[in-house]
Amino acid sequence: MKQEMITFLSTLKDEIFELTKYLYNNPEESFHEYKAYNYISSLLNKYNFEVTPSYLGIPTSFYAQYGKGHPKVCFICEYDALKEKGHVYGYNAKTAISIASALALSKVIPKLGGSAIVIGCPGEILSGSKVAMTEQGTFEDIDAVLMVQPHTITAESGSSMAIVPLQIKYTDNSYNNNTSTGKYSALDACLFTFDALNVIAKGFENNCFIGDINVNSITDSFPESVEAKFSIKTSSTKIADEIENKIESFIKLTCSLLNVSSELHLYSMPCKELITNPTISRLFSHNLKESGIINISGIKNIFSSLNLGNVSHVVPCIHPYVSIVNDNSIAYGTEKFAAATVTEFASDAIMKAAQALSCTAFDIIDKQSLIADAKTELSRLQTSTLQIR
C-alpha cells in the first residue's frame, strides 16, 4: 500500500507545484487569506475530502477529513504572508507539503483505515489560530499532528520558546489632588518595574528574556496612568509561569511603595514551548532518508515561538525542517527565500518531504502501537517539563 501511495504522489507533482506558485503569486495578510482558502478548499473537495468551511467561525479557516475513525493523523496548512515581502517564511511551500501528504495518504485510507485530517490555520504570522483551536478542543480527538517547515537547512524537529505576553497599567492614586509635591507618578512606577524585570529574569536560566517592551505614548510629564506591554520569553511554560508570579509580587510591592494602583493581564494568548515527539521524529527522519534526502542536521531549536507549541502539549507533534534552496547565500525570511519556493529545486524537495510525511502518517496508522508509544512519551515529557526547577 505504501508504494501505491508513493506512486500516486508522483502524479500530483504538477498540481502541487501549481498550488505553491498560486500562493506565492497571491500573498495575503494574516486572517485575510481568502484566495488561498478558496484554492486549497477546492483542491481538497476535488479529492473527496469533507471540508468544513469557516471552521470555528474563522472565515479563512477550514477542517477537512478523509476517512472515518481513528487513528486520525492531522496535517496543518499555514498560508498567510507579509504584505510587502510575500511568502518570506515559505508558508506556501509548507501548505503544499501538507496538502500533498494528505492527498497521498487518502489514496490508501479505504484499505488502511483511519482518517486523514487537514486543518487550515490562518494568521500564523500574527497571533495564529492554532492556540485558539487548542483552547476549544480541536486537537483532543487527533492522534498525531505532522508538519514540515521549508527552510535553508534540513534538520530534525526541536523545541521553541514559551512566551507569555503581559500588559500592565499603573494609575497614580494621588493624581489631581493638592498634595502632589514630591509624589511618585504612574510613569515612575512603570520605569521602576522595567528596571526590575530583567533582574528577575536573571534568577532563572540563560535563555530567559523580557522583550517586546512597548510603553504607551506619554502626553504630559506626570501622566495619571501609564500602560506598557512586554513578553516573558523562556524555554518552558513552567519557568514563564514562575517569572510571572514573581512579577506579580513585585508589582504589588511597587504599588505599596509608590502609592499607585495596577492592573496586570494578558494582551494575547500565551504560546507554549514545542514538545517534539521522539518516536514520530525518528520515524520521519528515517522516511526522509528513504525519500532521497540523506543529509539531515541535528535537532533544530528556535528562539522564537511556534503556535504549534500549544498543540504539542495535547497531542504528539513534529515540526522538522527541509531545505528548499541550493544556494547557501539565501537567508530564511527574505524575499530571495520566497522566490526560491517556486523553483524546480524547491518543487523536488517539497515532493520528497511530502513522501516522507505521508509515509510517516501511513506507519502511524498501520502500526498503531506507535500511537501508544508516542502518547506515553508525551505524558513523560509533560511531566519532565513540570519538574523543571
Describe the structure.
It is a single chain. This protein is α/β, with parallel strands linked by helices. 43% of the residues lie in helices and 19% in strands. It has helices at residues 2-10, 13-25, 34-46, 91-112, 130-135, 186-202, 237-258, 278-291, 308-312, 335-340, 344-366, 369-386, and strands spanning 50-53, 62-67, 72-77, 115-120, 144-146, 149-151, 155-157, 162-172, 209-215, 225-234, 260-266, 297-300, 317-318, 321-323. It is elongated and about 75 Å long. The N and C termini lie far apart (47 Å). 48% of the residues are buried.
Overall form: elongated
Structural class, from helix and strand content? alpha/beta
Helix tally equals 12
CATH topology category name of the largest domain: Aminopeptidase
**Mean of residue pLDDT?**
92
* The level-1 CATH class of the largest domain: Alpha Beta
Terminus-to-terminus distance = 47 Å
What is the CATH superfamily label of the largest domain?
Answer: Zn peptidases
Please give the domain count: 2
List the helices and strands and how they pair.
Blueprint: H1 2-10, H2 13-25, H3 34-46, E1 50-53, E2 62-67, E3 72-77, H4 91-112, E4 115-120, H5 130-135, E5 144-146, E6 149-151, E7 155-157, E8 162-172, H6 186-202, E9 209-215, E10 225-234, H7 237-258, E11 260-266, H8 278-291, E12 297-300, H9 308-312, E13 317-318, E14 321-323, H10 335-340, H11 344-366, H12 369-386
Parallel strand pairs: 3-4, 3-5, 5-13, 6-14, 7-12
Antiparallel strand pairs: 1-2, 2-4, 8-10, 8-11, 9-10
